[in-house]
Amino acid sequence: MAKSVVIIGCQWGDEGKGKLVDLLTDRVSAVVRFQGGHNAGHTLVIRGRKIILHLIPSGILREDVLCVIGNGVVISPSALMEEIKMLEQQGILVKGRLKISSACPLVLLYHVALDRAREAARCKQAIGTTGRGIGPAYEDKIARRALRVGDLLDESNFTANLREIVDYHNFILREYYRVEPVNYDQVLEQTLELRSNIDHLITDVPMLLAQIRQQNKNILFEGAQGAFLDIDHGTYPYVTSSNTTAGGASTGSGVGPLHLDYVLGITKAYTTRVGYGPFPTELKDDIGIHLAKRGQEFGATTNRPRRCGWLDLVALRRAITISSVSSLCVTKLDVLDGIESLHICIAYYYNGQRFDLLSDSKILDRCEPIYIELPGWQEITAGITEYDQLPHNARSYLQKIEELCGIPIDIVSTGADREQTVVLRDPFAI
Ligand code: GDP
Ligand code: IMO
Ligand code: MG
Predict the structure, then answer these.
(1) Which fold has domain 109-198?
(2) pLDDT tens-digit readout, 5-15
């Protein structure tokens, strides 16, 4: 039976989704991105060779697999072209393997200008966005004025609509934010120049995916960002502008919800966050610094240092619920090697009361984590591929996560490389 597996981040992004998508792509015919844009940074390491992808699905390193970008993704034509070029320079074939929905909204220069102007105007309340124009591009989509990939096919209409949109956004840039407007001719020229590289990639994505399923072939859906960056379910307003939870795989690709068979939720063995916003288990002490250093916690898109802290099971359990996560993959276990005592947050204190569940993310920055303590391990787990070879305390740590989350761990990652993985259960074989 064909199976569709959705991979999503269960924290604040950068859980290691790219690594897992690449690993599991050998089981599928297509990998589908369904939300986000080039704010994502997904790292793939294959026998020491590192590639960071932003827009192109992480299946691209496996030949014969289709890489599909669904309608839920916002596309910067220039970022897409740059990425295709980077891959082709490395000998990776992209042409003929990449398919894009005509309904993807375009991210253009004025979105970037607006993103940056808004962040600057917010001062201390800044979100800490990636500055890629993602929020403003989704705003245009919801306001029903976005230019979409399919619009590139009709040059005269595109030219006229672009004029109107540029005028509208330039008014806001000039009159409200008091910053430089964008140059219409430059946006038009740049976009039309890239058009000939994009128009042949346009496909009816829902029908393509339905056909693949009818042919009894597996599909992998690749989430970007993570549960608490979700526009509806995340730590609003410190979120991204799309639905990062599993339901987004359906609306963002045109595959009905009954055809999503399994959700693999990715979590680090600890927690990280880039940008501003609440983070109850954040560590500003030596252990936080140690995690950042050992885990090389720098953003794959902006290179900003990631904030680090202990694993938060209140948050993780919520992520599991809102995305009906079937099982977990725990990444970066090796980063915990050598830490004497490990903490896992199992509840919060707020206003003198204990909460095992949390519904209001607005109070998150005033919640005190309640921890359980577990003994660490001194052995090296980096590169281990067999569960039995993991130190006893590492297995106890993983078992505790399973017990407190109520779902199994299918996969454990012990290093950045594709091979450095323990597969306990294959999501496509269950
Ligand atoms: P994504 O956005 O979820 O795909 O994750 P990123 O690529 O932004 O960040 C994850 C980082 O951790 C990357 O640098 C990966 O190469 C690295 N990584 C993934 N899994 C592991 C692991 O198990 N151990 C270690 N040490 N690094 C890992
Ligand atoms: P991947 O797919 C981590 C964060 C930004 C900021 C907020 C809003 O690699 O996990 P945006 O530019 O989207 O408007 O920024 O979301 N953010 C991410 N953090 N990983 C990501 O993607 C992210 N994409 C956006 O740092 O806090
Ligand atoms: Mg990332």
Answers:
(1) Adenylosuccinate Synthetase, subunit A; domain 2 (1.10.300)
(2) 999 999 999 99
